Amino acid sequence: MKQILLVGLGGGAGSILRFLASKWLVQSAKGGFPLATFAVNVIGCLLIGLLIGWSYKHSALDADMRALLVAGFCGGFTTFSAFSLENMQLFQAGQYGTLLFYVLATLIIGFLAVYAGFWLTK
């Protein structure tokens, strides 16, 4: 139960920060490129990589802190960070076929799911 609450707390903070960052970046950006989402996803990927890398190197994050910071904050800030972490783990494990399938399936099916959602609301 404690870890569930920590994930919720971290997720709430990450979501609020994503919202604020997106609002600021949308106001600052010009053109059609989705800079806000792109920037948040890249920052989230960098952050989850830093947290996991630092944790592995220093054995520093216990299960509660991983729940708060990795699953919660990074997950709330962007789910793309968790997706990227899983891809890195598949790569490190030499599971290249699974990695390729996961990336392509996630991108293609994710796009199709968004399209289907829009189509279903017409």
Task: Characterise the protein shown here.
By secondary structure, the protein is mostly helical. It has one domain (2-120). Helix content is 86%, strand content 0%. It has helices at residues 2-28, 35-58, 63-77, 79-92, 96-120. Helix 1 packs across helix 2 (35-58), helix 2 packs across helix 4 (79-92) and helix 4 packs antiparallel against helix 5 (96-120). The longest helix has 27 residues, at 2-28. The chain is globular. It starts with a helix and ends with a helix.
Task: Give the biggest beta sheet.
Answer: none
The topology string of helices and strands comes to: HHHHH
Percent range for helical residues?
Answer: over 70%
Give the strand tally.
0
Distance between the termini: 41 Å
**Mean pLDDT, as a whole number?**
87
Summary?
The protein is mainly alpha-helical and 122 residues long. It contains five helices and no strands. The chain has helices at 2-28, 35-58, 63-77, 79-92, 96-120.
